[in-house]
Amino acid sequence: MAEKMYPNILFLMTDEHRPDLAGFAGNPVIRTPNLDRLAKDSVIFDNAYTPSPVCIPARQCMMSGQLPRTCGCEVFGDDLPPFYRTFARTFSENAYNTVCCGKLHHNGPDQMQGWQHRIGNETRLTERFIENQDKEKLSQFKVSQADHRWTNAKEVLRAGVGHSRNMVNDEYTLRGALDIIEDIFESPYYDKQQINQPLLLKASFVLPHYPYYCDETLFKYYLNRVPVFGEEQKLSGHPYLDTKHLEIGQDVKLRDIQRTTAAYYAMIETVDNYIGQILDKLDEAGQNLDDWIIVFTSDHGEMLGEHGIWAKHKFYESSVRVPLFIRWPARFKPRHVKENVNLCDLYATLCELCHLDVPDNLDSRSLTDLMEGRSEGWSNESISQYLGQYLMIKQDHLKYHYYGEDMPEVLWDLLKDPDESVNLISDPAYSEAVEQMHKRRAQLGFGPDGDKNYKNAGYQLHPQK
Fold first, then answer.
1. For the segment 219-243, what is each residue's pLDDT rounded down to a tens digit?
2. Cis, bond preceding 208 (omega within 30 deg of 0)
3. What CATH number has the domain spanning 389-454?
4. Superfamily of domain 9-379
5. What's the pLDDT tens digit per position in 111-154?
6. In angstroms, rounded to a whole number, what is the distance separating the alpha carbons of residues 386 and 55?
7. Residue 222 burial by CB count (10 A; 0-12/13-18/19+): exposed, middle or buried?
8. CA atoms of 70 and 28, how far apart (whole Å)
9. At a CB cut-off of 8 Å and minimum separation 6, what does 418 contact?
10. Phi, psi (5° rounding) for residue 388?
11. Are 220 and 407 a contacting pair, CB within 8 Å?
12. Where are the domains of the chain?
């Protein structure tokens, strides 16, 4: 099968999706038949990481191919400056029809950020980007952030059967994706198909992001089947890693956690069903999915009570690692890639696969050599940043955390300690590794000796060449 010069791309994305909760990831309880059928012919990245373990920075960094400190999206609420260089803009400029259905999480004045067509009901300009706004007058009507969001305890206590706003948004996203596929490939009423122009279609769902609500049938199926992180979970003792924890028997009951876990599993099966409907619609339209590049990933994970912690924001694997596969059987055989990669790497990878020039100054490396089974020279590093001052460097099997000078550093050896429970930062056997982490930290602009002239991570497109 010959690869196309300008192949169509289907970019599938979920939100807050643990990397271990899919059938293709080895989970024996979850039902994800549609993701599994794609994954069996895909290159699966077992160690893919988000550039930031929170929604908005993660998504803007992925779109820009740059780390938070490079693109300036370092905290929740930030957005890329108007007309910023995103991979959607690059593809639009190179004659692709670029369509996004669903969540992009742009809050600023440029709500398109390079996409030609947006479908969904999340387009919204937040107050911080409105010039000359009367903040005093707004304060009379604005709900405070503390009142606006439930606590983690309330999220767990309210979990169960229901139809959340996120589900409504995703149904809108699904409807838009199905309609745009019909418009482009079938157009039964006006006969205006656009089948000759290459398409970049992103379907970006909110599920399985909390609130933890789901369909009753699925809830009952999972309720007494799901494994839970229970009373055996121990806090780390670290002043930041232990935030957002819930104590069983005090904040919530074990049964509450079981109900929440069941709802979370059910939300994943729900979004898998949505993905299946998109695949079926493309098949109905006469598209051969083997001719398409199909990407699946998420913006970050979900702790789900592991280590006693909920939500994300942490550099634990379940929060900072993401599911990722790329399917294109015309060029790549199915395989598992063990090297450390990052969502930022998708920019350069998609450009190279579609024969587009890769922009300069990206924190993005092409994954194509890894996808072909060549790892020689790969730096085997992945970086994540949070709140403008917290840093994670994953190098080989070692994961280093920096939380400023007022909190302890952390070093985990995931080869010896996959549960991430033993801090080796002061272990003499790791002193050389810690020294190397400190040097890299400084290059990235962090720490007391951080590079004041930091520009980017200093990556090459192909590190091994």
1. 999 999 999 999 999 999 999 999 9
2. yes
3. 3.30.1120
4. Alkaline Phosphatase, subunit A (3.40.720.10)
5. 899 999 999 888 877 777 777 777 777 777 766 555 556 899 99
6. 11
7. buried
8. 40
9. none
10. 75, -10
11. no
12. 9-379, 389-454
